[in-house]
Structures are given as structure tokens and as C-alpha cells.
Write a structure and sequence with these properties.
By secondary structure, this protein is an alpha+beta fold. The protein has a single domain, classed as Alpha-L RNA-binding motif (Alpha-Beta Plaits), CATH 3.30.70. The chain is built from 3 helices and 11 strands. The strands form 2 sheets. Strands 1, 2, 3, 4, 7, 8, 9, 10 and 11 form a 9-stranded mixed β-sheet that branches. It has a two-stranded antiparallel ribbon with strand order 5-6. Strand 2 and strand 3 form a beta hairpin.
Amino acid sequence: MLIIFNKPFRVMSQFSPCDHKSTLKDYIDIPHVVPAGRLDYDSEGLLLLTDNGRLQHQISHPQGFWQKTYWVQVEGEAEESALALLRPGVTLGDGPTLPADVTRIDEPAGLWPRNPPIRYRAQIPTSWLQISIQEGRNRQVRRMTAHIGLPTLRLIRVAIGPYQLNHLPPGVWQELPEPSVAEPAHRSPGPRPKTRPLRKFPFSKKAPRS
């Protein structure tokens, strides 16, 4: 079984109770599925869950078997010179990162509102980026943008490998066909071709649960 879930803001990526915080148990009532990887409490978007141990390991391996793509709202004007620093990789406190695909995009059309909303400062603009990485370090994207002086205000994961969030509203899950794990479903680390920004779709208000 493979489940895609649009994790809302301030939901823990776990089923067990955690200091009165909202968890996956508040949204998903399916026995034996576990998250394949994590998504921070203060991040939103695509989370995969499965009851297949091999698939779970393949998706969540910390060296990043599956590429992950994020829409990132940052504080400040994202100049091309700053983004060029991210693409070959930057050195963080836990070592250098792999190369990343980084593109400036327009604010995604029809994006659901966040509650509470991000902080806005008068006289300070915000920018939207699409960032694709092939690693799974703790709070990696946030640390990468902070490294170039662009603090992350909002972080939405929109793709993991071949799976995209598409029209799935926050708090809703859907079951998909499970991929074969007999063959690698990841890209090997190394140079990547340039990617185009994901289609900025209008989100539907309702989606049927599977």
C-alpha cells in the first residue's frame, strides 16, 4: 500500500502522541502504514506512507534515493547571484550538500492559505523558489536558504520522486498503486539536468478519499 498525504502546517509526521500536538492519527486511520521519511512540524505538503518496509527504506534513505521538490517562500529579494550559490552545493554545519536544482518562480496560483499566516515585514519583499534536492538532512532546505541570507518563511513539499501533490488539499490522503521495489526508483547522485518549475495548479477545495 502507498498513501500520499498533504500534511498541513503544524502536524507531526508520526502517529504516536507528541506533547498535545496534532499528528497523522488525526487524519489517517489505516493500520500498519508508516511515514516514508519525514516532513517538519512547521512544513507542509507531500508525505508518503506505506506498509511496505522495503519501499519505506528506499524512499526515506538519508542519502536521498528519491529527489524531493519544494516550493519555498523566502524573506528578501532572491537575486540570481544568490541562487547560483546554492546550485553547486553549499557547506552547512554537517558538511557540504549535493548540487541542487534551484529556480525562482511566481507565487503558486490558488495556493491554500496557511493558518497562522507567515510573518510579513513592511519594506521587506518575499520571493518564491522551487528547490529540488536529493538528500534528506534535518531542516536542510531551511538551512540552505538561510546560508545565502534568505530565511525560509514557508516550505511546501510538492514532489517526491515520481509522485506529485497535484490537486490534493491539505489534510486529505489518497491511495496510489504501489511501485515495484525490485528495480531502483531513484536517481544516482551526480550532475542533474535542469528542470522546469512544476505546473502551478489551482488547488481544488475537495478531493475524494480512497
